[in-house]
């Protein structure tokens, strides 16, 4: 795998006061993912092709790459990125959730004419709020 010119992954980790199965439902179903992320038609089956509605950036194609219920789901997003979410039960009614957004290339410009380095910085901040939205959803 080519590793030169890669930018660091965006990683968000937090502990949610919710059982792992509740968090799993929020990250592995279309209904759950739509609440805290973007509208989509996800089915948690390896190879399933689905779409997310990225608002001003249009409908984005995705493919489920990995499903390990209730611990991990990973999907390719667009032609560049991979989104991986891992869960670990760390106590009664507590789940550690780590979200990893990878695939950042230092010299790449996306289809909207934006360099990955610029998009990555914007999304790094955005993922903080999105991860918090997931926490609020599962803790409600």
Task: Give keywords.
140 residues, 29% helix, alpha+beta
Averaged pLDDT, please? 94
Give the CA-CA distance, first to last residue: 41 Å
Query: What integer value in Å does the Rg equal?
Result: 15 Å
How much of the sequence lies in strands comes to 25-35%
Order of helices and strands: EHHEEEEEH
Structural class: alpha+beta
What oligomeric state do the depicted chains represent? single chain
General form: globular
User: Could you estimate the helical fraction of the residues in percent?
Assistant: 25-40%
DSSP helix count? 3
The order of strands across the largest sheet is 1-6-5-4-3-2
- According to DSSP, the number of beta strands is 6
Q: How would a crystallographer describe the biggest sheet?
A: 6 strands, antiparallel
The low-confidence parts are: none
